[in-house]
Amino acid sequence: MYPAAPGSRGSVAQVGCKVLPYLDDFVFVFPDQETAAAGAEWIQSIMYWLGFTPHPAKSVWEPTQRLEHLGLVVDLAQGTFCVPPAKVARLTRLARGIAIAAKQNKRRVPKRELAAFCGYAQSVRLAVMPANLFLRSLYDDSAIGPSPGFSVVGLAA
After folding, report:
1. Which SUPFAM superfamilies match (predicted)?
2. CA-CA distances (angstroms) from residue 50 to 5, 43, 73, 122, 129?
3. Which residue has the higher pLDDT, 128 or 57?
4. pLDDT of residue 93
5. Strand, helix or coil at 129?
6. Domain map of the chain by residue range?
7. Can you give the pLDDT at residue 59?
8. How far apart are the C-alpha atoms of 54 and 49, rounded to whole Å?
9. How many CB atoms are located within 10 Å of the residue 20 CB?
10. Coil, strand or helix at 151
11. Pick from 101, 145, 152, 141: which is nearest to 118 by CA?
């Protein structure tokens, strides 16, 4: 049998925990510091019981209200997901590269460059919710461009 949840109530959900999963990365949000400390111990015991060894440098076991997760800053005190300045700068460079390529090549942009921008922009979707909506047409352009290595995109300056 797996280890009991904090306070022996049965499951983490029953103690008010919310989980944000992404592949093999998880954030567990607890209602208070005491429950979070007990929850961290329980989560570690479950992981070891399942045969997983958490990476010490990539794990945060002390309760905190601010941490970086999947390249975004999660701030529970303010209730926000933020894109770090370095990530904003790279996203801006990629977008400017596409605009320059489109201007120099009669609105034709290398598909690889367009796909790189879309993938990187998609990585901030938790912090910038409209990202999914605005990327849809770029994904469509990268999939059905007029020639094998280029896409035609409509960019407004």
Report:
1. DNA/RNA polymerases (SSF56672)
2. 15, 10, 29, 31, 34
3. 57
4. 93
5. coil
6. 6-64, 85-152
7. 87
8. 12
9. 14
10. strand
11. 141
